């Protein structure tokens, strides 16, 4: 097949999509990484791509995943269903009550993981809204108001998350 600018651009575009695909990116990284032994693994995935990243991890790690916590945006579980996983949908882009519940579930899950085992933590965009634990004296209404102001300010997400 002869190369044409259109074919070349399409190939580049498809390669770029594969690189940012959560399933593919995690799968490739785990294949290259130190997860090739038979050690049990506990998994945490947080973000809008949490389901896809988890899928990639399960493809490589299989039954080695003992337990996991997946926290993603409402409607982003993408059919993920595995009895070893606790699946939570939380609020994004403005944190809400489900973000607070997810924050507590994350704390509880981390406390339940035995010491000395492998813990794989996968984080993608949206995590800062999906998982919240409020400091003393700061209400959810305060957080919601502040988030709305910052999102409306024109600042990029990197500046907001600082």
Structure description:
The chain is of the alpha/beta class and 162 residues long. The protein has one domain: Rossmann fold (3-Layer(aba) Sandwich), CATH 3.40.50.10180. It contains seven helices and four strands. The protein has helices spanning 5-20, 22-32, 50-61, 97-112, 127-130, 140-152, 157-161; strands spanning 41-46, 65-73, 85-90, 118-123. It has a four-stranded parallel sheet with strand order 3-2-1-4, with helices on both faces. The termini are far apart.
Any descriptors?
4 strands; 162 residues; alpha/beta; four-stranded parallel sheet; 7 helices; 17% strand; Rossmann fold
Supply the CATH class: Alpha Beta
User: What do we call the CATH topology?
Assistant: Rossmann fold
Could you say which structural class the secondary elements and strand pairing correspond to? Answer: alpha/beta
Helix content: 40-55%
CATH architecture: 3-Layer(aba) Sandwich
How widely separated are the two ends?
49 Å
| Order of neighbouring strands in the sheet with most strands | 3-2-1-4
Topology:
Blueprint: H1 5-20, H2 22-32, E1 41-46, H3 50-61, E2 65-73, E3 85-90, H4 97-112, E4 118-123, H5 127-130, H6 140-152, H7 157-161
Parallel strand pairs: 1-2, 1-4, 2-3
């Amino acid at each position: 097949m002869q190369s044409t600018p259109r074919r070349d651009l399409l190939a580049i575009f498809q390669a770029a999509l594969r690189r940012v695909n959560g399933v593919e990116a995690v799968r490739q990284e785990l294949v290259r990484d130190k997860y090739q032994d038979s050690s049990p693994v506990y998994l945490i995935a947080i973000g809008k791509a949490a389901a896809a990243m988890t899928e990639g991890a399960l493809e490589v790690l299989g039954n080695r995943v003992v337990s996991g916590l997946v926290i993603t945006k409402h409607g982003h579980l993408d059919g993920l269903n595995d009895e070893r996983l606790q699946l939570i949908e939380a609020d994004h882009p403005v944190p809400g009550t489900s973000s607070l519940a997810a924050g507590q579930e994350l704390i509880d899950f981390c406390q339940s993981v035995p010491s000395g085992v492998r813990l794989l933590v996968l984080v993608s965009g949206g995590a800062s809204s999906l998982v919240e634990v409020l400091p003393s004296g700061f209400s959810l209404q305060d957080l919601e108001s502040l988030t709305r102001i910052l999102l409306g300010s024109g600042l990029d997400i990197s500046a907001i998350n600082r």
